[in-house]
Structure prediction request, 264 residues.
Amino acid sequence: MPKLNLPAKPRIAIHKFASCDGCQLAFLNLGPALLTLAERVEIVHFAEAGPVEPEAPVDIAFVEGSISTAHDSERIKRIRAGCTYLVSIGACATSGGIQALKNAADVAAWTQAIYPHPELIESLPRSDSVDRHVRVDFEVWGCPIGSDQIVSLITALLQGVPPSTSSDSVCMTCKQRGQSCILVTGQQPCMGPVTRTGCGALCPALGRACYGCFGPANQVNYRALADCFARMGLTAMQTAARFNFINGQARAFSEAAGQLHEST
Prediction:
Protein backbone atom coordinates (compact mmCIF):
# COMPACT_ATOMS: atom_id res chain seq x y z
CA MET A 1 0.00 0.00 0.00
CA PRO A 2 1.34 3.49 -0.83
CA LYS A 3 2.05 6.09 1.82
CA LEU A 4 -1.13 7.27 3.52
CA ASN A 5 -2.47 10.66 2.56
CA LEU A 6 -2.99 12.43 5.90
CA PRO A 7 -2.50 16.04 6.96
CA ALA A 8 0.05 17.00 9.62
CA LYS A 9 -2.68 17.11 12.27
CA PRO A 10 -5.47 14.77 11.14
CA ARG A 11 -9.04 15.06 12.33
CA ILE A 12 -10.33 11.89 13.99
CA ALA A 13 -13.65 10.58 15.27
CA ILE A 14 -14.54 7.60 17.45
CA HIS A 15 -18.02 6.25 16.75
CA LYS A 16 -20.05 3.73 18.74
CA PHE A 17 -22.53 1.18 17.43
CA ALA A 18 -23.89 -1.95 19.17
CA SER A 19 -21.18 -2.69 21.73
CA CYS A 20 -20.18 -2.52 25.39
CA ASP A 21 -17.87 0.55 25.03
CA GLY A 22 -14.87 -1.56 26.07
CA CYS A 23 -12.85 -0.71 22.97
CA GLN A 24 -13.46 3.02 23.39
CA LEU A 25 -12.01 2.62 26.88
CA ALA A 26 -8.75 1.60 25.22
CA PHE A 27 -8.46 5.27 24.22
CA LEU A 28 -9.42 6.59 27.65
CA ASN A 29 -7.11 4.14 29.38
CA LEU A 30 -4.17 5.74 27.60
CA GLY A 31 -4.17 8.26 30.45
CA PRO A 32 -1.49 10.95 29.95
CA ALA A 33 -0.72 9.49 26.52
CA LEU A 34 -4.22 10.53 25.44
CA LEU A 35 -3.29 14.14 26.17
CA THR A 36 -0.19 13.72 24.03
CA LEU A 37 -2.33 12.21 21.29
CA ALA A 38 -4.71 15.18 21.49
CA GLU A 39 -1.77 17.44 20.64
CA ARG A 40 -1.01 15.47 17.47
CA VAL A 41 -4.58 15.02 16.22
CA GLU A 42 -7.82 16.95 16.39
CA ILE A 43 -10.44 14.81 18.14
CA VAL A 44 -13.65 15.99 16.49
CA HIS A 45 -16.10 13.39 17.79
CA PHE A 46 -15.72 11.14 20.83
CA ALA A 47 -18.95 11.21 22.85
CA GLU A 48 -17.49 9.16 25.69
CA ALA A 49 -14.71 11.71 26.18
CA GLY A 50 -16.59 14.93 25.47
CA PRO A 51 -16.63 16.26 21.88
CA VAL A 52 -19.81 15.43 19.97
CA GLU A 53 -19.95 16.18 16.26
CA PRO A 54 -20.87 12.86 14.61
CA GLU A 55 -21.51 14.26 11.13
CA ALA A 56 -18.23 16.18 10.85
CA PRO A 57 -15.87 15.10 8.04
CA VAL A 58 -12.66 13.55 9.38
CA ASP A 59 -9.46 12.00 8.16
CA ILE A 60 -9.72 8.87 10.33
CA ALA A 61 -12.92 7.36 11.71
CA PHE A 62 -12.65 4.65 14.36
CA VAL A 63 -15.75 2.50 14.66
CA GLU A 64 -16.63 0.30 17.63
CA GLY A 65 -19.64 -2.03 17.53
CA SER A 66 -21.68 -4.13 15.14
CA ILE A 67 -24.38 -3.04 12.72
CA SER A 68 -27.66 -4.25 14.21
CA THR A 69 -30.41 -1.87 13.06
CA ALA A 70 -31.51 -0.16 9.86
CA HIS A 71 -30.49 3.15 11.45
CA ASP A 72 -27.00 1.72 12.07
CA SER A 73 -26.76 0.66 8.44
CA GLU A 74 -27.52 4.16 7.21
CA ARG A 75 -25.27 5.83 9.78
CA ILE A 76 -22.20 3.74 8.94
CA LYS A 77 -22.62 4.68 5.28
CA ARG A 78 -22.59 8.37 6.21
CA ILE A 79 -19.48 7.84 8.34
CA ARG A 80 -17.76 6.06 5.46
CA ALA A 81 -18.62 8.89 3.08
CA GLY A 82 -17.29 11.48 5.53
CA CYS A 83 -13.86 10.00 6.26
CA THR A 84 -10.66 9.25 4.38
CA TYR A 85 -9.79 6.10 6.34
CA LEU A 86 -12.14 3.91 8.37
CA VAL A 87 -10.78 1.66 11.12
CA SER A 88 -12.99 -1.00 12.74
CA ILE A 89 -11.93 -1.72 16.31
CA GLY A 90 -12.86 -4.73 18.42
CA ALA A 91 -14.70 -8.01 17.91
CA CYS A 92 -18.13 -6.39 17.44
CA ALA A 93 -16.92 -4.19 14.58
CA THR A 94 -14.65 -6.79 12.97
CA SER A 95 -16.84 -9.90 13.21
CA GLY A 96 -20.22 -8.97 14.72
CA GLY A 97 -19.28 -9.86 18.29
CA ILE A 98 -21.52 -11.44 20.89
CA GLN A 99 -24.56 -9.78 19.28
CA ALA A 100 -24.02 -11.97 16.21
CA LEU A 101 -25.18 -15.00 18.20
CA LYS A 102 -28.67 -13.89 17.17
CA ASN A 103 -27.79 -14.63 13.54
CA ALA A 104 -28.59 -18.29 14.15
CA ALA A 105 -31.90 -17.51 15.86
CA ASP A 106 -35.39 -16.43 14.84
CA VAL A 107 -35.21 -12.78 15.89
CA ALA A 108 -38.95 -12.19 15.54
CA ALA A 109 -39.73 -15.22 17.70
CA TRP A 110 -37.47 -14.32 20.59
CA THR A 111 -38.50 -10.67 20.64
CA GLN A 112 -42.10 -11.86 20.82
CA ALA A 113 -41.19 -14.17 23.71
CA ILE A 114 -39.13 -11.65 25.70
CA TYR A 115 -40.59 -8.16 25.24
CA PRO A 116 -44.12 -7.03 26.21
CA HIS A 117 -44.14 -4.68 23.18
CA PRO A 118 -41.95 -6.36 20.53
CA GLU A 119 -43.21 -3.91 17.93
CA LEU A 120 -40.99 -1.28 19.59
CA ILE A 121 -37.82 -3.31 19.04
CA GLU A 122 -35.93 -2.17 15.98
CA SER A 123 -33.51 -4.83 14.82
CA LEU A 124 -32.10 -6.21 11.61
CA PRO A 125 -32.31 -9.99 11.21
CA ARG A 126 -28.51 -10.10 11.57
CA SER A 127 -25.85 -8.37 13.63
CA ASP A 128 -22.93 -7.86 11.26
CA SER A 129 -19.38 -6.58 11.14
CA VAL A 130 -18.79 -3.14 9.69
CA ASP A 131 -17.14 -4.50 6.54
CA ARG A 132 -20.39 -6.22 5.53
CA HIS A 133 -21.90 -2.76 5.03
CA VAL A 134 -19.03 -0.48 3.94
CA ARG A 135 -15.40 -0.62 2.92
CA VAL A 136 -13.00 -0.84 5.88
CA ASP A 137 -9.38 0.26 5.51
CA PHE A 138 -7.90 -1.25 8.66
CA GLU A 139 -9.07 -3.65 11.38
CA VAL A 140 -8.01 -3.99 15.01
CA TRP A 141 -9.16 -7.30 16.49
CA GLY A 142 -9.84 -8.01 20.15
CA CYS A 143 -12.52 -8.16 22.82
CA PRO A 144 -11.69 -5.63 23.95
CA ILE A 145 -8.70 -4.19 22.14
CA GLY A 146 -5.82 -2.92 24.25
CA SER A 147 -4.34 0.55 24.64
CA ASP A 148 -1.03 -0.72 23.24
CA GLN A 149 -2.82 -1.64 20.01
CA ILE A 150 -4.19 1.91 19.78
CA VAL A 151 -0.73 3.40 20.32
CA SER A 152 0.79 1.16 17.64
CA LEU A 153 -2.02 1.86 15.18
CA ILE A 154 -2.06 5.64 15.56
CA THR A 155 1.75 5.87 15.52
CA ALA A 156 1.80 4.09 12.18
CA LEU A 157 -1.00 6.24 10.75
CA LEU A 158 0.68 9.47 11.85
CA GLN A 159 3.86 8.28 10.15
CA GLY A 160 1.85 7.76 6.99
CA VAL A 161 2.30 3.98 6.82
CA PRO A 162 -0.26 1.16 7.09
CA PRO A 163 -0.35 -0.33 10.59
CA SER A 164 1.17 -3.77 10.95
CA THR A 165 -0.94 -6.57 12.38
CA SER A 166 -0.01 -10.08 13.45
CA SER A 167 -1.99 -13.18 12.59
CA ASP A 168 0.26 -15.49 14.64
CA SER A 169 -1.55 -17.59 17.21
CA VAL A 170 -1.71 -17.03 20.96
CA CYS A 171 0.55 -20.10 21.24
CA MET A 172 3.40 -18.01 19.84
CA THR A 173 3.09 -15.56 22.74
CA CYS A 174 2.92 -18.39 25.26
CA LYS A 175 6.12 -19.90 23.86
CA GLN A 176 7.91 -16.55 23.82
CA ARG A 177 7.04 -16.07 27.48
CA GLY A 178 7.92 -19.61 28.54
CA GLN A 179 4.30 -20.19 29.50
CA SER A 180 3.27 -23.82 30.04
CA CYS A 181 0.77 -24.98 27.43
CA ILE A 182 -2.76 -24.92 28.82
CA LEU A 183 -3.92 -27.33 26.12
CA VAL A 184 -1.20 -29.98 26.47
CA THR A 185 -0.01 -29.80 30.07
CA GLY A 186 -3.17 -28.26 31.54
CA GLN A 187 -5.58 -30.47 29.59
CA GLN A 188 -7.97 -27.54 29.14
CA PRO A 189 -9.90 -26.87 25.88
CA CYS A 190 -7.83 -23.85 24.89
CA MET A 191 -8.58 -21.89 21.69
CA GLY A 192 -5.04 -20.48 21.63
CA PRO A 193 -3.83 -22.56 18.64
CA VAL A 194 -6.47 -21.01 16.35
CA THR A 195 -6.70 -17.52 17.88
CA ARG A 196 -4.55 -14.58 16.81
CA THR A 197 -2.22 -13.07 19.32
CA GLY A 198 -2.60 -9.53 20.66
CA CYS A 199 -3.91 -10.00 24.18
CA GLY A 200 -0.54 -10.95 25.64
CA ALA A 201 -1.85 -14.49 26.27
CA LEU A 202 -3.67 -13.07 29.29
CA CYS A 203 -5.92 -16.05 30.04
CA PRO A 204 -3.24 -18.76 29.68
CA ALA A 205 -0.93 -16.69 31.88
CA LEU A 206 -3.62 -16.91 34.57
CA GLY A 207 -4.08 -20.64 34.10
CA ARG A 208 -7.25 -20.35 32.02
CA ALA A 209 -7.96 -21.59 28.52
CA CYS A 210 -8.16 -19.01 25.71
CA TYR A 211 -11.68 -18.00 24.66
CA GLY A 212 -10.79 -16.81 21.15
CA CYS A 213 -11.32 -13.12 21.92
CA PHE A 214 -8.93 -11.89 19.21
CA GLY A 215 -10.43 -13.79 16.31
CA PRO A 216 -8.92 -16.32 13.90
CA ALA A 217 -5.18 -16.73 13.56
CA ASN A 218 -3.56 -17.61 10.27
CA GLN A 219 -4.39 -21.11 8.94
CA VAL A 220 -7.05 -22.26 11.41
CA ASN A 221 -6.71 -26.05 11.72
CA TYR A 222 -10.03 -26.62 13.43
CA ARG A 223 -10.05 -30.36 12.82
CA ALA A 224 -6.80 -30.97 14.72
CA LEU A 225 -8.04 -28.83 17.60
CA ALA A 226 -11.40 -30.63 17.61
CA ASP A 227 -9.53 -33.94 17.88
CA CYS A 228 -7.64 -32.63 20.92
CA PHE A 229 -10.88 -31.45 22.51
CA ALA A 230 -12.53 -34.82 21.77
CA ARG A 231 -9.78 -36.59 23.69
CA MET A 232 -10.67 -34.36 26.63
CA GLY A 233 -14.28 -35.51 26.39
CA LEU A 234 -15.86 -32.63 24.43
CA THR A 235 -18.42 -33.43 21.75
CA ALA A 236 -18.28 -31.87 18.28
CA MET A 237 -21.20 -29.62 19.29
CA GLN A 238 -19.34 -28.39 22.38
CA THR A 239 -16.28 -27.64 20.28
CA ALA A 240 -18.42 -25.84 17.69
CA ALA A 241 -19.83 -23.67 20.49
CA ARG A 242 -16.31 -22.48 21.28
CA PHE A 243 -15.78 -21.40 17.68
CA ASN A 244 -19.26 -19.90 17.49
CA PHE A 245 -18.75 -17.48 20.40
CA ILE A 246 -17.16 -14.03 20.60
CA ASN A 247 -15.89 -14.04 17.00
CA GLY A 248 -18.29 -16.67 15.72
CA GLN A 249 -19.09 -14.79 12.51
CA ALA A 250 -15.42 -14.39 11.53
CA ARG A 251 -15.17 -16.48 8.37
CA ALA A 252 -12.64 -19.08 9.60
CA PHE A 253 -14.49 -19.62 12.89
CA SER A 254 -17.90 -19.67 11.24
CA GLU A 255 -16.76 -22.24 8.70
CA ALA A 256 -15.20 -24.37 11.44
CA ALA A 257 -18.39 -24.31 13.50
CA GLY A 258 -20.44 -25.20 10.44
CA GLN A 259 -18.23 -28.18 9.58
CA LEU A 260 -18.36 -29.42 13.18
CA HIS A 261 -22.16 -29.15 13.23
CA GLU A 262 -22.37 -31.15 10.01
CA SER A 263 -20.16 -33.88 11.48
CA THR A 264 -22.62 -34.59 14.31
